[in-house]
Design a protein that fits this description.
- It is a single chain.
- The protein has three domains: about 220 residues, 3-Layer(bba) Sandwich (FAD/NAD(P)-binding domain), CATH 3.50.50; about 90 residues, D-Amino Acid Oxidase, Chain A, domain 2; about 150 residues, 3-Layer(aba) Sandwich (Rossmann fold), CATH 3.40.50.300.
- The protein contains 17 helices and 27 strands.
- A hairpin with a 6-residue loop joins strand 23 and strand 24.
- Helix 12 packs across helix 17.
- The radius of gyration is 24 Å and the shape is globular.
- It binds flavin-adenine dinucleotide (FAD).
- Flavin-adenine dinucleotide binds next to helix 1, strand 3, strand 8, strand 16 and helix 9.
- The site of flavin-adenine dinucleotide (FAD) has 36 residues, from helix 1, strand 3, strand 8, strand 16 and helix 9.
């Protein structure tokens, strides 16, 4: 084994093997390190979507090998308990160009991914081997301390990619900033059955979702002739699952009449497994000599079953960015900023909704208490505190879209403008929880009528100048010409915003009070 690589990838499941294989395809010298021997399962109900991991498998040229394991193509969905007793038929979730989702058990899937990476001439695999710590050169990560075969060696590289899951050693070592965090919310347990049939007696070709109050049961027809039956319940249910997992799952599934008869007619395979409630968070994605990919950098409750999609998509974005940097096409900073903004787009599409609805899944049921909640535009000039307020709202579990990030702005013309197709689509999505959209662009007026409230955040000129001088999160406004522009906008643009606003909040108030007023405007009960 050579002791110098371009990239050391720690962890060899969805995120790690995908990243290693895509880098290997481009001739990058990779050491892929995995602590456990494969094939080995990991806790997961392993459902993923056409526009997510299925598309990544396709890019890896691995889709045929995965389909050869025998998972049925998931080409539709059955829903029970979402307003009607069901079954209601729907299209597969985010099916993308490929048009179907899949459910593949982790032992065979992860082994195929690892073998795909191993086939690359420039990828070496160390397994079983454990990264114990990182090696540093000043403030830069420049390698790992690898324990393998009873010995510990230092391996040097240009970048360490932590794809080592939610209890990541790489993340522990680099102590990244926490971008979002929400306390543990739910627990999820599952088991397999054979001889599963669809609601009309047909061979399984659909994911099934059954809602009962705050609990959701899942059916994912999988490879190997088995079907995974899962159930997500509130954190309080964990005690029962931990003591008697089989009995607890069976008992709770009884409240799902659309599934129960067919569960009774199927054949149980293996034991009930699952996991405790775990914290939800998004960590900074990269720094000097390191990057976090998959669960290592971003973990959210599995009730939405998006972790594998997100891990695969993040790995693909990270591979493109890292390869560009190593080939000399971009600087490391540019590459990592690009990876960060692509990951942020994925996070924005998923994290806040997962964690806010995850507090109580009954929000998904249409009914007198549900229906669409408010959409609130939070606008204001530079340094009036929009980002701080939006971050706080996101941390409190609201759905938040900060249009300064995540590809909402079209910069093709003289003036940055919202991408109107995306904004129109966002405002027509169902809103089981309030939506706060932040931004200040010239074409926002075209959407004023589509928001339930338009809130202007404001502060006096002297407060704005002081914030511009002292803020560390945004360089805009440090230069004299930028400050002059901001003050001119304050004179000319702010009065126009004020005219269209339905409410104004002075952000010299304590942050908690600003957020409380926004929640009140959105008609949200205090959390
Ligand atoms: C109950 C449950 C159900 C779920 N259901 C779904 C679902 O239906 N659909 C879905 O998309 N997602 C689901 N998920 C989430 C999904 O399993 C994860 O998001 C996904 O596995 C993340 O992949 P990863 O490659 O980032 O990390 P992991 O799968 O956690 O892999 C990390 C790897 O790193 C290795 N490793 C760790 N530390 C070291 C070290 N120091 N040195 C070397 N190797 C190391 C580990 O051995 C492991 O193999 C579920 C999760 C749970 C808990």
């Amino acid at each position: 084994m050579s002791r110098e690589y371009d990239v050391v990838v720690v962890g060899a499941r969805v995120a790690g093997s995908t990243l290693a294989a895509l880098l290997g395809d481009l001739g990058v010298r990779v050491l892929l390190v995995e602590r456990v021997r494969f094939p080995r399962s990991t806790i997961s109900t392993h459902f993923f979507r056409g526009a997510g991991l299925v598309a990544v498998l396709d890019r890896l040229g691995l889709l045929d090998e995965v389909l050869a394991l025998g998972p049925p193509r998931i080409t539709r969905e059955w829903d029970f308990g979402f307003g009607s007793p069901g079954p209601d038929e729907g299209p597969p979730q985010r099916a993308g160009d490929i048009g179907f989702g899949l459910s593949v058990r982790r032992a065979p899937l992860d082994e195929l991914l690892l073998e795909r990476a191993r086939r690359c001439a420039t990828v070496e695999v160390a397994q079983p081997a454990t990264v114990r710590a990182l090696v540093r050169d000043g403030d830069r990560v420049c390698g790992v301390k690898l324990a393998e075969g009873g010995r510990e060696v230092d391996i040097r590289c240009r970048l360490v990619a932590g794809a080592d899951g939610r209890h990541s050693t790489v993340a522990r070592e680099v102590a990244p900033a926490m971008e979002r965090s929400v306390e543990p919310l739910r627990t999820l347990y599952y088991r397999y059955v054979a001889e599963w049939r669809g609601p009309n007696g047909e061979p399984p070709d659909a994911a099934e979702f059954s809602l009962n109050g705050d609990e959701m049961a899942y059916v994912f027809p999988s490879d190997g002739g088995v079907t995974c039956i899962g159930l997500s319940a509130s954190a309080a249910a964990f005690a029962g699952f931990r003591t008697a997992p089989d009995a607890e799952l069976a008992r709770r599934l009884e409240a799902h009449p659309g599934l129960m008869t067919r569960i009774g007619a199927s054949v149980a395979v293996g034991r009930t497994e699952g996991g405790p409630p775990e914290a939800n968070w998004v960590r900074a994605p990269a720094g000097r000599g390191w990057a976090l990919v998959g669960d290592a950098g971003w973990h959210q409750d599995p009730w939405t079953g998006e972790g594998m999609d997100n891990a695969g998509l993040c790995a693909a974005h990270a591979a493109d960015a890292i390869a560009g940097w190593l080939a000399g096409a971009t600087s490391e900073d540019e590459a990592m900023a690009r990876y960060g903004s692509q990951r942020r787009e994925l996070v924005d599409a998923s994290f806040d909704e997962c964690t806010s609805i995850g507090r109580d899944l009954s929000q998904l049921a249409p009914g007198p208490a549900a229906g669409d909640r408010a959409a609130v535009l939070v606008t204001g000039m530079s340094a009036t505190g929009k980002s701080t307020v939006l971050d706080e709202l996101a941390g409190r579990g609201h759905r938040v879209v900060d249009t300064d990030h995540g590809g909402w702005i079209d910069t093709a013309g003289d003036e940055p403008l919202w991408r109107e197709d995306r904004m129109a689509a966002l405002l027509t999505e169902p809103r089981p929880i309030p939506l706060f959209v932040g931004g200040c662009v010239a074409n926002q007026g075209r959407f004023s009528d589509r928001f339930d409230a338009v809130v202007l955040l404001s502060a006096p000129q002297e407060t704005i100048l002081e914030r511009l001088a002292t803020r560390t999160t945004n360089e805009f406004g440090k230069r004299t010409d930028e400050r002059a522009r901001i003050l001119a906008d304050l004179r000319e643009i702010e009065p126009l915003l004020r005219r269209r606003a339905t409410a104004e909040i002075d952000t010299r108030l304590p942050l908690a009070e600003v957020v409380r007023r926004l929640e009140e405007i959105a008609g949200t009960p205090p959390m």
